[in-house]
Amino acid sequence: MRRILVIRQCAFGDYMAARPFLVELRRLFPEAHITLATVTTYRYAVPEDLGDEVFVQETRGSLAEQWRSLRALEPVDILFDLADTSRSRVLTLMAPAAIKLGFPYRGVFNRLLYDVGLRRSNYHYEAEVLLDFLKVMGHKPRYPLDFAMPVHRQAESPRVIAYFPFASKAEKSLSLDSWCQLIDRAAREFPDYHHVLLEGHKAEESGDFLAEVAARQANVEVQPRMSLEALGPWMAGVSALVCGDTGVRNLALATHTPTLGIFFQTLPYRYWPRYEDLHEAVFLRSGEVPGSTDILQGLEELLTRVYPERGAPRQSVSDASS
């Protein structure tokens, strides 16, 4: 295998989930030239450090320009379609490859596009599902998964709990009022921890809404937005991250930082690694939004399990205020 094409047209969090696949792909074919294919919309966080070349499929120009873009790829020995979008299927069809692998949601594409088609499961962590393509070839992935990212060190981490209250869609996260109430209560009930709200890279992902809580609670602050290069090491240095279904949580998973995920719009299992006992998911079987009591109980259980040497992390409100 001298030339390999990996199609992954997705957002920040999904790129994070693809990193172990790329690490293990390099282990399996150390001499191969690996091209990562994306589209103009999703250039942010492309794992360029794990490939040799990035191919950007033209999706905004004229039909002629888009056609030329599709025909620009050189022949490859093997193609992995890790996206299963209409654009990735067109690229898979047009790209000259000796072997094509994908996991289409519709079985008909197994016969039309792929030599090997695998079923995608929504009940296993996405990063592990992607490794099935390499297991087909007899490869033995290493565990815990290697994301080629800074790694959290439990013994050295300061008592900092990070919160990321934003998501790609507002309905996938708690309301800002709910986040204020949650962090305010967490600051009182977990007084030995510093509680830091992380701003997002978008202008509207500001922490200004927490100003009143930060002024009232000495152990609450807002971390201004930072670059992706700085975010990885910073995330690896906190004790835990509390957030919803977001790309930032996927980054925390990639650094093996303990996480408490809050789920109600999406199934938790696809974003919940079970190969290491560092992650917990808060969700209700009814599909309702978890309340502060559910979330803080989950946080207490997570911190107790991951950092038993620190003792009980939570105090009652009366004890915390005394």
UniProtKB/TrEMBL annotation:
SUPFAM superfamilies: UDP-Glycosyltransferase/glycogen phosphorylase (SSF53756). It comes from the Bacteria. The keyword Glycosyltransferase applies. Keywords: Glycosyltransferase, Transferase. Gene3D superfamilies: Glycogen Phosphorylase B (3.40.50.2000). PANTHER family: LIPOPOLYSACCHARIDE HEPTOSYLTRANSFERASE 1, TETRAACYLDISACCHARIDE 4'-KINASE-RELATED. This is Glycosyltransferase family 9 protein. The lineage of its organism: Bacteria, Pseudomonadati, Pseudomonadota, Gammaproteobacteria, Oceanospirillales.
